[in-house]
Amino acid sequence: MHVKYIAQLSQTKVIVYVFLTLFSDLTFLSFTCRLGRTQDPAMRNHTSLTRFILLGLTDDPHMQILIFLFLLLTYMLSLTGNLIILLLILVDSHLKTAMYFFLQNFSFLEISFTSACIPRFLYSISTGDRAITYNACACQLFFTDVFAVTEFFLLAAVSFDCYVAICKPLHYVTIMNHRVCQRIVFCCWMATLLIISPPFSFGLALEFCDSNVIDHFVCDVNPLLKIACSETRFIEQMTLAGTVLIFILTLVCVVLSYVYIIRTILGFPSAQQRTKAFSTCSSHIIVVSITYGSCIFVYIKPSAKDEMTINKGVTILTTSISPMLNPFIYTLRNKQVKQAFNDLVQRIISLSKN
Prior knowledge:
Layout lengths: L2 H5 L3 H28 L12 E4 L6 H31 L6 H18 L2 H10 L3 E3 H34 L4 H4 L2 H26 L9 E2 L6 H7 L5 H34 L4 H29 L9 H24 L2 H19 L1
Helix pairs in contact: 2-8, 3-4, 3-5, 3-12, 3-13, 4-6, 4-12, 6-8, 6-10, 6-11, 8-10, 10-11, 11-12
């Protein structure tokens, strides 16, 4: 499909196209991996693994109840908060700016990311069934990584939006028009696929002959590499290189944007203007700090043989707590969003009375 044509598609069509691309990539990679396995009889006994066992967080039944209630609560709050943001931006005409377009996509990613991890773990705790099929594990790993990496690129896009809004306010509407925003979001997804696909395709060819027990509550890269009996050094290096590339590309964009933003804000004549400008960017700075600070512990490691304790704790933070807090940090405390929410409630009440 031609790039210019894709850029002109509506947001819904872009999302559908991206998901079809994700699904086709995953299907092709899985088929290729399975085909390669069946064609090598010598390795058939070592690669007939059809499921994994997820150890979870603890074997203590009392702790499992507390963890279940905590994760269920945070998941429902995250789902509710992000769905409210999606709905408000969709129906309110005052929330059609570039910033809210990016936040709408960010909320979609938060819902998708946490839904790829938490419901499966809640099911495991409630039923005691810790088994997950090979294909389900591959899908969970692929989609959680895609959603997480796309969030990083989208955070960089939001920082650029803040830069244009504060440093070039007179040209904001011209620079950040709807077509440009769609292209930026599309590029975020495509960049993610280009970085994620190579190590993932090599990972599908890994052999698991000694153990199928994953020391985690989700299918994650590090615990999977830990139990692989084939050589994992090349995949570890590819994963590390991809992670560093993502961090450098997005962090450079964020840092440069805020260098210019801070320099511009300090040049404002009145303290009121400076306070208002800083408050505009404060939400994004908080989310960036949480996202980068937590993920750096999970993904940037010299070896997959490290202990999983910190990994599990930080994964809980990134999959449950952060998606729950981000709606409140980003938009639900915003005056425009509050007004849009009040208008929506009033509209619903008036419709119910009629």
